[in-house]
């Protein structure tokens, strides 16, 4: 009887695992197919958005070549560099703001701490683009809406309110034993030294997450970039450039270049993630002083 029960249990487990794996495989195909199609379209030899076949008939590298050489209408290299510069500055400044506020909310106790946390949670419920008109007029009033100052304006917009989104990093800091802080205080360390020399080295996973999300914001944002850049094509970001490629006067000639641009935009994020994925491994064994 026991052998029969064991065999039936193994059969049920095998069937359930098979069903789960089949479902996961189907979901993986559904998720990967659009990416695969965009990559194929970026190498398509036929021009235009309206074609008779779903998959390309011919393949070529001319789409990538044209994307970076034909700057007569849409200067994609300039847009790419604008976005890269803004994203790098945002990744550094936003990470500093988020980690600093998170550490203060996790370790320090002061008046109005709870009301501030509640206010930050309420503000996080509202999308940022609700304030874009007010933000634009403030930037215009201080002279940051024209010329080269547009890049500065975008950096300020993307980094100004990032400190409010401290809840995820705060939850991570709460998991680090406070005994480490107390041991460092006994050795004469200041709060800033504890933050930089004890907490930060033990917080690589959340630092990587913060840097990635801060870096991705300028790449993904379209609304604020469009409002602030307006008709200043010299300071467009890649999101505006890709959107322009799909306008009715450009879509027939730039549709395949749009797919090539979408592939190029994903490369910096993929490289950043690959370079920083080892930092996800966190080890705190032996960290507490005896």
Give a description of the structure.
The chain folds into two domains: 2-63, no CATH class; 75-281, Orthogonal Bundle (MetI-like fold), CATH 1.10.3720. 69% of the residues lie in helices and 0% in strands. The chain has helices at 2-42, 62-69, 76-107, 113-124, 132-141, 149-160, 167-174, 178-186, 191-199, 204-220, 223-229, 238-245, 251-276. Helix 2 crosses helix 13 and helix 3 (76-107) runs parallel beside helix 6.
Features:
single chain; 290 residues; mainly alpha; 2 domains; 13 helices; flat; disordered C terminus
Strand content: under 5%
Radius of gyration: 25 Å
Net shape = flat
Span from first to last CA?
54 Å
> CATH H-level name of the largest domain... which superfamily?
MetI-like
Q: Which second-level CATH architecture of the largest domain applies?
A: Orthogonal Bundle
Task: Give the count of helical stretches.
Answer: 13
Instruction: Estimate the helix proportion, in percent.
Output: 55-70%
CATH T-level topology of the largest domain: MetI-like fold
Q: Can you identify the CATH class of the largest domain?
A: Mainly Alpha
Write the element-wise H/E pattern from the N-terminal end onward: HHHHHHHHHHHHH
Low-confidence stretches: 282-290
Task: Let me know the average pLDDT.
Answer: 83
Main sheet overview:
none
Number of strands: 0
